[in-house]
Protein 1
Amino acid sequence: MSLSSFLQLIRWKNLVMIALIQMLFRYIYFPAFLVETALSNLNFSILVFTTLIIAAAGYIMNDIYDIEADIINKPNKVLVHRKVSKSKAHFLYNIFNSIGLLSGLYLAFIINNLPFVAIFVITVLLLKVYNSDLKKRPLIGNVLVSSLVSLSILIVGVFDIIPMVNEDNAIDQYHAFRVLIDYAAFAFMLMLLREMVKDAEDVNGDKKMNMKTLPILLGRKRTNTIIFSFSFVPLILITFYSFNSFSNVPFVLAYMLIVVLLPLLYFMTKILYSKTKKDYIKASKLLKIIMLLGMLSIVFISLTIYYADQ
């Protein structure tokens, strides 16, 4: 197996995005707001590594289960069985999960809260159930994978913020965790939209796998309408959140309205009239960019607050 095939197998671009988001909060947001953290730089690196290696295992299992569908949906990108043997893919899946669970156990021990290792155990199990069954069902699989993406943000607070809460800093620590919840909710909504778009993109191969996704049950046109309608939820919530939180910080407010909301409005106009596979691929990529731009807003918020206090 070549390095290129391995990187494609673990979806390295998605992993880089997850790591970037976690590090933005740890090294930009937390210092700007004087958030007390429990993990050393080394242990935080282990937290990022644990998140990534378990996510990578999930991507490998996804390719194992989707061989037949991928031959139709993306014939040029089929890895398992062509560039990576099925047995080697299973081996990597088991090794990655084992390493992830062991490092998760170490982290739970470090913060003196062993029950927290259950987060990693449950994540591994849910990814297994998702790939083997839930992804074939309408919406349930979409909601689950979107929840796991938002968990990759929340887990930073669980291991780095919560263990440091005491009577003196409780309000500030929980406020910081609340911000993580807000961004995790944003990631959930955008990811849910993207998963529905990807279902519409992959409808031909999914039919062969006897999946019951929304585009298969309702057709692409009705699914487009559902995606368009649901898009109003993040649109309205982000608008309200931006004006409510940043009305006194014009630069941040302008960023949210121009850089995040305008592309979301553009996505809504495009998805309503999407018909071809190429249309859905473009819509999916656009949502990924919007999600990244939304997460990057934490940089502008942190820097604005930091320099305002100087």
Protein 2
Amino acid sequence: MTPETVQLAAESGMRCCATFWGLDIAFELFLAGLAGGLMILPRAAQTRRWAFAALALAGLVLFLHLGQKSAALWFYASFQPQAPMWWGAWLFALALAALVVWDRRPALNWLRVPVALLGAGLVIYPGIMLGSLAARPAWHPVWTPVSFTILSLGSAAALLVLLDPRLRLRPAWSTSATLVLLITLATRAAILLSGQG
């Protein structure tokens, strides 16, 4: 399969609707970015489990969005490094596997580096993928991948604040962290919806 065929298979598998991608995909991108940020900033086993939960939920949301579920298998049945969605599919799978292995074998400290690299890929990938869709010029500006990266790291840091019992009890910290998470989700939705026309 050519990269164009893989891309077409993925896009044709998307549920037909009034918009290209809606709020469900904004939520998926938010969760994937959050997971990636947590993988870059792991502090404890609890953090890794939150990263796994966020990434697994993101994958479920994306899978439910597909109209033709079998279209997702094409990414794993072919070698298409020119297709950004191919990279995204493998990033998801490898990140989930790495988080499971590290959770079961926490003594494997060398896993910090590959987990952080996979997390960086998850943080950077959405902006690159959106920018590669020629039919959506509003997603092409250079600030799209930059904003996705900054907001993903910010949302991960905000969640770490909410998970820390010492900081969670401070109203200013917990309110600020919650606002960061909500702003990140709203920004994802705004970027996606801005490219629908």
Protein 3
Amino acid sequence: MNSKKTGVLAILGASLMWSLEPVCAKLAYKYPDADFVQTSAVRAMVVTLVALVYVFLTGKRNLKVTRGQLSKLFYIAIVGTICADLLYFFALTKIPVINAVLVGHMQPIFIVLIGFFILREDKLTKFDYLGIFIMITAGLLVTSGTAENLSMMKLCTAGDVYVLLATVAWATTAIVMRKYLKELNAGVLTFYRYLIASAVFAVYLTARRSLVISNVYQILVGVIVGVGTILYYESMKRIKAAQVSAMELSTPFFAVLFGFLVLRETVTVMQVSGIVLLLVGVCLMSKKEEAYF
């Protein structure tokens, strides 16, 4: 199998994992002694083990990184896992799976804007502006849910805002990974990202005397995220960033299906329209996104 096909299959596999993650997290929350911090901690530790197994199975057996790479890994761990992931997991206690997944997949907006305003790497084109407008519209349709809410300007909840903040943080870590850590083994990258986060969680939960596994869903979330993260990083090494962003849009469709089948969450016509608009917006932005990396 050639590199491109492997990359395509990897990102589709990652998308499937991303759609399963919030469903399993919500199932974990149903247990009275499981909160979002504890679930995030167990998840991080399990992901660390999954990544370590992957490193050894792929024959690397070498976890050595340079000092420069380690500083970037610290940034990704603290901003992407401690801050963003915690915001996301907290938001899942407040909002439906589809809201969390779709808002979380608005990363291309922030990647493009960061590249333009902060990194000063390129100019925005008409496709960028149109794509951003369409994706923002998609987000409003999904978070408002109904025409009545939209007309009354009930555009989003606090939970939606938390996911939006997490999305901005994830976008910055994606840029760091693609610019500085692209050559690092996917398993090694995942291992350090979650090892650093696990250490922080362990200190905090030990102080609270709540460093325990409450239910099997917490472990399952860790396995799912571990596999998904490795597949995501492997795809980034093989295909363009624009292609990754476009194919990741299968996640909301999987999320709607699993949310209905497992959690009995329903979606409105307006939310389905938002998913379709998200696809259109990312396709437009993909015409330029690849230039940033």
Protein 4
Amino acid sequence: MYRIDSASAAAVLPASTAAGPNPDSYFTKGDPSLAVPATVVEDEYLNMIQEELANVIVGTGAALDKANRAQLLAAIQTLVVNAAVPVGTPIWVPGTTLPTGFLKVNGALLNRVTYANLWAYAQASGNLVTEAVWSATNWGAFSDGDLATTFRLPDARGEFLRAWDDARGVDSGRAIGTSQADQNRSHAHSYTLSASLVGGFVPSGSGGAWLSTAGATTGTEGGSEARPRNIAWMLAIKF
């Protein structure tokens, strides 16, 4: 869409005039046989239509594009999504293509002006830390970036998400947005020694020597991390 740009167009929007005597008026093509004139389409009416449509597009943060005939549709779709999904809302995406209005939660640095709504959310979230703290332990937080023009998204790639304890006591001492290393719950394993010779000792018996168990261990199994069965989807955030 674009605003009229012909040579005869006004340089500034003309001032609005007072409302006519009949607010419920309609167009007519007129009837010369009855001396009924056709409706004159005035500049104020056309400017009203132009600005109503243009403001829908500009209101979503887009710039008017003369070559784009689908901007109004895209703007309406964006407004519908914004109304249904608040800024800052995370969603799981079962694919690699992001829906309109969303970003990957991948720790990227963003411009504070370009993503003003998300920056406002980050500041009000209670989950905004310095860049140094983010890099050390708080990948689940927003960072204040360069303190001037940028801020950083959380980075959820390859991570499992855990609900914040919030003083419940199940996962005490955690600040929101902090990371936590993998860990197995403390436990023990039993094992059985055979009656064969072990370390120069034999199983104890009446009058026999005591069996040495020094250095005995259980076998190992598993991989490089502790994890439950899972499926890999992409996490996205509304901006």
